[in-house]
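Ticket #410: bound-state structure for fe (iii) ion.
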Amino acid sequence: MRTLIKNIKELVQVERQPKLRAQGKEMAQMETVKEAYLLVEDGIIRAFGPMSEWNGTADHEVNATGRMVFPSFCDSHTHLVYANSRELEFVDKIRGLSYEEIAKRGGGILNSAKATAAASEDELYDIAQQRLEEVMRLGTGAIEIKSGYGLTTESELKLLRVIRRLKENSPLTIKSNFLGAHGIPMEYRGHQEDYVDLVINEMIPKVADEGLANFIDVFCDQGFFTVEDTARILEAGIKYGMKPKIHANEMAVSGGVQVGVKYGAISVDHLEQMGDTEIECLKGSETMPTILPGCAFFLNLPLSPARKMIDAGLPVAMASDYNPGTAPSNNMQLILSMACIRYRLTPEEAFNATTLNTAYAMGVSRELGSIAVGKKANFYITKPIPSYAYMPYSFGENKVERIFLNGVEV
Ligand code: NIG
Ligand code: FE
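RESOLUTION: The complex was predicted; output attached.
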C-alpha cells in the first residue's frame, strides 16, 4: 500500500542523513521542503521532495494544500497510568503548602499509590487507554510510560501489565519504565534501605521475569532516594537488562546527574537544579539531559538552564512528565511553546528537543523523531497555518488536523 501526501505547504524536519540526536549548534538546524510530497509505503517513509519532482503512482492520495506536515512528537517521560487526579493537593499548594510538605504528610505519590492499589488492572487499562487516545490526538506518536504509583510488588506489576496491554493494542510506539523507587511507603519511613532491598530483591526479578520493562528509573532527589540507593537499584536493573533512565535534580543538586551518567543512563530528567559541575559531567556522555517544562510550570520551580546547556554543546530534550501530581497535561504542543517562551529556545531547537532528542531519550531515534527515508511513518498534518513558527507561537491551541501512525490515518 502506497500513500502519497501531496501539495504539502511545508514538510518540516526532514533529514537526509539522519542523526541519532541533535546537540549544541545542531539543535538550531532544521531542514524543510516547501510545496512538498511525502510517500509512505507499508508504514515506512519511502520518499519525499518537492512536488515538482513527484512522478510516481500511489494507491491512495491525501491533499494537504495550505497545511504543513511534521514528524509526530515523541514524549519520553510520562506517568500516564494512574487511578485518580489530585486537584485537592493543587488547591493546598495554592494556599501555600510545598510539594515536599504534601509528600511528607502522606499525600503526593502515596495518595496516588493508595488509589492505584484499589483499582483493578482492567479499570486502570480503560482510563489509561482513553488518555493515550487524547495524547495521540495532540500529535504524539511515541511515548514512554512509567510505573511508580504501585510501590508494592503486586501493584507495580499491575501497572506494568497495563502498560504491556497498551503496547499490544495501541498504534503508538510505547516504551515501559519500571519506577518502583518513586516514593517511600509510610511503613518504610526511617529505614528506606529496606524498601530499596524490596525493589532490588523482589520487584526487579519479577518485572524482568515477565519482560515488563525496557528501562529502570529512580526518583533520586532530596527527601526521596539517595545517590547510594540509586546506584544499587540501577546496578540491579542493569543486571536484568533494563537501561537506566532517571529522575534527577528536581528539588536539589542531588548527585543524580552524576550517578545517572556513571551508570550509562539514556537520560537524566528534570534538572531544575543544575550547576556547572553537572553540565561538565554530561559533556561527552551518552546521556540525554531532559527538561520537563510542564512540571516546572505547575510547581513554580526554577527553570532548568536549557540555553546554557545548549550553548555548552549539550543536546537537550523536552518531555511532558504527564502525571497527576506535578504535570497534569498531556500536551506536547504546549511543551513546544514553553520551550520557546520560557526557556528561550528557537522554534528549530524546540522541535528538535521534542521529537528527535526525545526519541533518543526513549531509545527509538533510529526509527522515529524526524522525516527520513526508512523511518516509521508517524506524522501529523496541521490545520492551515502560516509558518512553522506558528506552532510554538499559538500556545494552547490544537493545530493538529490529521494523524498518521505506521503510515495509517488514525
Ligand atoms: O516526575 N518527580 C517525581 N515524580 C513525578 C511526580 C509524581 C507525583 O507527584 O505524582 C514527576 O514530577
Ligand atoms: Fe516524572
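RESOLUTION NOTES: The two ends are 16 Å apart (CA to CA).
TICKET STATUS: resolved
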